[in-house]
Design a protein that fits this description.
Blueprint (H helix, E strand, L loop, with lengths): L2 E5 L2 E2 L6 E2 L12 E6 L7 E6 L4 E7 L2 E6 L4 E6 L4 E5 L4 E5 L6 E6 L8 E2 L2 H10 L1
Antiparallel strand pairs: 1-9, 2-3, 4-11, 5-10, 5-12, 6-9, 6-11, 7-8, 7-10
InterPro entries: QdtA_cupin_dom, RmlC-like_jellyroll, RmlC_Cupin_sf
Pfam families: FdtA (PF05523)
Protein name: WxcM-like protein
């Protein structure tokens, strides 16, 4: 599956740790940053794939599951450490679920929002990846 866990460099200190995201950590030029918060534990976010966009998801607080599908296999990744991010490359269906109380998901994206880049229906996604 075209995903990768990215280790985010951290500086450990007895007063609290600092995680640092600079150009050498993110393997693309950053064009957009947003975050999800106050997501009810029974809600689902995502539910789409991208044709070209690359995303890095980082759990700034709490935990959540990322359900992934590349058209051939499914995988669930639990994100719960703010110094580890999930890099999702194009043509991977993703759904976010099981948000813990107070969870915050930071998303760093390779492109600005473009509706044409989204595939929002699972059956359309499966047809898209199977024609490639």
């Amino acid at each position: 599956m075209n995903i990768e866990i990215i280790e985010i460099p951290k500086i450990e200190d007895y007063r609290g740790n600092i995680a640092v995201i600079e150009n050498d950590v993110v393997p693309f030029d950053i064009k957009r940053v947003y975050y999800l918060f106050d997501v009810p534990s029974n809600s689902h976010r995502g539910g789409h794939a991208h044709k070209n966009l690359i995303q890095l998801l980082i759990p700034l607080s709490g935990s959540f599951d990322v359900v992934l599908n590349d058209g051939r296999e499914n995988q669930i990744i639990t994100l719960n450490k703010p110094d580890k991010g999930l890099l999702i490359k194009p043509t991977i269906w993703r759904e976010l679920e099981n948000f813990s109380s107070g969870a915050v998901c930071l998303v760093i994206a390779s492109e600005v929002y473009e509706e044409d880049d989204y595939i929002r229906e699972l059956d359309q996604f499966l047809a898209y990846v199977n024609q490639s």
